[in-house]
Amino acid sequence: MADEGLRPIIIKRIKKSSGHHGGAWKIAYADFVTAMMAFFLLMWLLGSTSKGDLEGIADYFATPLKVAMAGGTGSGDASSVIQGGGKDLTRIEGQQQQGEDPKTRKRFDLKEAEAELARAEARRLRALKERIETAIANIPSLQQYKNQLLIDITTEGLRIQIVDEQNRPMFALSRAELQPYTKVILHEIAKTLNDIPNKVSLSGHTDATPYASGERSYSNWELSSDRANASRRELIAGGLQEDKILRVVGLSSAVLFDTGNPYNPINRRISIIVMNKKTEESITRENQTVDVQNEEAVQQAVGQDAATPGEADVSPPR
Q1: Contact present, 254 and 206 (Cβ < 8 Å)
Q2: What is the DSSP track for 59-112?
Q3: H or E stretch covering 310
Q4: TM spans, by residue (predicted)?
Q5: Burial (0-12, 13-18, 19+ Cβ within 10 Å), 143
Q6: Considering its fold, how many domains does the chain have in total?
């Protein structure tokens, strides 16, 4: 009994942990999620990349230095990994392309565009011709002068000619002074010319009758020039914008209306031309120089000038 009092007393303490395996499971789970994201990303790329691009990627990883040095079909050739350009990445069929397809890219023909502009300009000039003819028919003050107003379309544009009659001249005899009815005609014409962007050319003409004082001091050249300039001033007074007039010339009797009778009063006239674009460019290009060393440029310039007829091609309207 005495030995039992000397036995040691053993106390067992149980340690309780705060969780299963501590925080190590979080690291493992994060690695798993990362691996799954990489896997699904790989699956998406494989599913949305074309067969040719896949072959290019495979070739690159097989021989990366060869592709890098020599080039070729590879992943860099693809502009987008999404086929069809649609919004639903899980669909391939039935998608609408939202980008520009190089195969169906619009191509513009410069010659066809120029031809279309010429046709549109011709339509404007025909409409202006009809408008002037309607004004002549409807305005009482112009009806009596309809035989002196000749309107036609030439290679230079719309031509409006105001011609003399035997007993009804436009100007005072041998002078550049306009008759009152000529001013009325010019004012009515001026009202219609501001509606289109085309420039205007004026030329004065006389018949072949020599000037009374001879050809030395004052001749038909000066007279035709003065009459053309007097017509210009009257058009501006009638409302024509001054910057629309591009050329004013006097041609004396060099360009006859009636070539069979140089003394016919109809040869005395004022010619107003609403120029087309080609004629306008030929005038504005007169001061440009051409390098004679460039044979091709010289031939082109000469060809363009020859293709644009001048005032000498005027012929009586039918």
Answers
A1: no
A2: HHHHSHHHHHHH--SSGGG-S-SSGGG-S-TT--TTPPP-S--GGG-----HHH
A3: none
A4: 27-46
A5: exposed
A6: 2
Domain for residue 91, yes or no?
A: no
* Confidence (pLDDT) at 27: 85
Same domain, 136 and 282: yes
Sign of the four-CA dihedral 183, 186, 192, 194: negative
Report the C-alpha gap between 227 and 248 in whole angstroms.
10
Q: Across residues 90-104, what is the average pLDDT?
A: 54
Pairwise CA distance, residues 256 & 119, whole Å: 30
Write out the residue range of the structural domain in which residue 239 sits: 115-311
3-state secondary structure of 164: coil
Q: Are 204 and 250 in contact (CB under 8 A)?
A: yes
User: Which residues, other chains included, contact 199 with Cβ-Cβ below 8 Å and sequence gap of 6+?
Assistant: 244, 245, 246, 274, 275, 280
**Measured distance CA(240)–CA(234) in Å, rounded:** 9
Write the DSSP symbol of residue 137.
Answer: H
pLDDT by residue (tens digit) across 63-73?
Answer: 655 555 555 55
Closest CA to 136 of 86, 188, 99: 188
- Predicted TM-score (pTM) of the model is 0.55
